[in-house]
Design a protein that fits this description.
The chain is mainly α. The protein has helices at about 5-25, 25-35, 45-65, 75-95, 105-110, 115-125, 130-155, 155-160, 165-190, 190-195, 195-205, 205-215, 225-255, 255-260, 265-275, 285-300. It is globular and about 55 Å long.
Length: about 300
Amino acid sequence: MNNTPQHRENLGLWLGLLGVFVFALTLPMTRLATGTVDAPQMSPWFVTWARAALAGGLSAIYLLAVRAPWPLAEQRGPLYLSLAGNVIGYPLLLGWALRHVTASHAAVITSLMPLATAAAAAWLMHQRARLGFWVFAALGSALVAVYSLLRAAQMANDVAQGFGLTWADTLLVGAVVAGSLGYVAGAKVTASLGAEKVISWVCVMALPITLPGAWLTWPEQTIAPLSWLALLYVGVFSMWAGFFAWFRGLSLGGPLRVSQLQLLQPFITILAAVPLLGESLDAMTLGFALLVVATVFMGRRMANTPKAN
């Protein structure tokens, strides 16, 4: 069996790419599950609880199979913060926003996630960053704000009936903040717990909330089979299995190299939304996605302080 450093690094890159692809499909799959304002399917509340409950059941089986010990007291705080951000905050805010904006639109806003995660790490884990990082973070945020305003003006006729795109974009920004805080909180205990066990314990610890939440919000109307399949996807892959590939890829290929694959995520989302949702390729959306990804790439290069001489 080939176990050379080069082979491990290449395997890490492929696993990382698989993780990015899984996460990129989360946006169009969530929109399929929730439907739109004109053709609603499952409520964002139900999608949030049900996907986490499904992942929690799979996580319980996995943790029992590997005989994982209970998290220590000092590990539970970060796990609960990750629960709040990744299990509740991110999917719930994303689900409500995707009822009112396209997956391609949301891909531009959420492409700020890597920069937001780095900023959260600088704050919660006291990692100093260069001034250049904050410059590119501000530039990326400004680009997203400009895109939001241009899109709102372009679709002014659609928002006249109530829910404006500006408010939907606020929900997407909130999802980015919640998700990034959850990622960093989970990262704080990854070294001691193990990457795969972190997401599994987070999902299991959420079961006392997610199981009754899913029961109480179970849809009363008939739901399209495609929406049930989309819910199955976000529960099994987006909420659980995708993290296995992603975390293992980071471990084998190295975080600095593999994490750059996240820059492909908004483009995969935009392209996947064409066959899955029937969305059209939009030059403005693609252009702003490219610009935001460029600021993320430069910002990540500036994230670490230079080594002391």
